[in-house]
Structures are given as C-alpha cells and as structure tokens.
Amino acid sequence: METQRESRFSPDKRSSQDGLVDSADGSLGVCGWIILILSAFLAAVTFPLSIWFCVKIVQEYERAVVFRLGRIISGKAKGPGLMLVLPCTDTFIRVDLRIISFSIPPQEILTKDSVTTTVDGVVYYSVDSAIKAVANVSNVHVATQQLAQTTLRNILGTQTLSNILSNREEIANNIQAILDNATHKWGVKVDRVEMRDVRLPVQMQRAMAAEAEATREARAKVVAAEGEMNASRALKEASLVLSESPAALQLRYLQTLNTIAAENNSTIVFPLPIELMQGLLNRK
C-alpha cells in the first residue's frame, strides 16, 4: 500500500514543483478528456465562427504559455506565428521577451560611515524563460523591481560614501550579479544595472567642497615650493659657472643693463668695472 501510494502521488508532486506537465501523457483523467472532446466538438460545430476565438497570433518577440485545464501544454511556450487554442478549456498568457527597463525610485541610504544619501538607478532585464516567468512567480516585473530596490539598499549600506562616489561601475556590476542570480529561477536575465544619481545633503556638499578647496590650496603651495627650490638650484649652478669666468659675469651685467634701458626710458649711471680700475692702477 505504501509503494502504491507513493507511485500514485509522485507524478503530481513532480508536476507541482516544475509546473510543466504534458497533456498528452493521459494525466488529464476521464473527466478531462470528456471536457476536451466536447470543447473540440463545439469548435467544429460553430466553424467558421469559432476560428476567431481559436486561432491566435503570437508576435516574433512574444511567447505564449498555454494552459489546458490548468496544465501547461507540452511543457514549453508556443510561438511565434499562428496558435490554436480550444474554447472553454485553453487559456494562454503572452510573455514579452524584449529588454525591459525600469527606474529604481530614489532610495534613502545610510552608508557605512554614517552618511545619509539618496541614490537612484536603472535596471535593464529581459525574460529568458516564459514558462518560469509565468509558473514560478505571480508578477515577474513587480518582483524584479522590488528585489532591485532591496538589493540596492543592502549593497550601498555596506559601502562608504567615498567608495560609492568613486566605484560606481564596480558596485553596479555587483548588484547586477546578485539580481541575475536571484531572478534566474523566475526566468529573468538581468543585462545591466546603472547608478544614475547620488544626492548628498547640503551640509555634506559644503564640507566636501571645503575639503577639496583645502586640498587644492595645499597642492598649490607644494608646487610653488618645489618651483622655488628648483629655481634656487638653477641660480646656484649659474653663479658657480659665472664665478669661473669674470668676463662672462661682465657680459651678463651689460646684458641686464641693456634690458633695463629697453624697458624704461631713463638715464642709468653705473660704475666702471673694478677689474678695469685695477688695470689702470697697476699701469701707474
């Protein structure tokens, strides 16, 4: 009796888990076959009027999941093209396979470093399996949107504000991997996740602006100090070169006077070179 009971209920248990049952295996039962025959007879009697109710067109980007007396026919989706359904016994659901995008509403998030920020994003996904999208979840689009909002809050709550601002692409890839793994049993393929905007409080914006300005000022002072140090080294090397040649020093002196005279029209009185005076004294 135990063996008979297990063999009797094992097909129903398997079908309830998978949601895929072939109606051609005789599992409809006697009543099911009677209703199916009556439905086919009714469609034949009312022909050609019944053709408007029995023939359906499935577009190239669509698939139709047909239920016959509550069971999915052949365990796979129908389409594209013409499809025949029986009145009273068959119902079908159209599933769009094109890429769908939706915006994640702005989520107020408390980051790891205790900063409150508002982040929104956009998710691109498509239905990969029409059977799973119909049989495993009541509304695949609403479920995907809710899961995306929850995942965004959970992931960003473990990151600091600086990481969120600097590593947007890496964080978006992590969210995409988590969503794709979670929605696989729903027949959904998440193609891309993007973080559009990160809004900070006004006080935090002012603090970050002051910090950036202080960093720029410090960097400018360092650059100016390095420039002065390099200039002093160059002057030291030039003085060493000029000290080795007195004639070069005199030429530099005359060049400087020429430059001053060209810029300012004035009379310049300058002493004679000391070396020339020493030469005259030695002659006397």
UniProtKB/TrEMBL annotation:
The chain crosses the membrane at residues 33-55. Residues 1-16 have a biased composition (Basic and acidic residues). The keyword Protease does not apply. Pfam families: Band_7 (PF01145). InterPro entries: Band-7_stomatin-like, Band_7, Band_7/SPFH_dom_sf, Stomatin_HflK_fam. It is found in: Membrane. This is Band 7 domain-containing protein. The gene is stoml3.L.
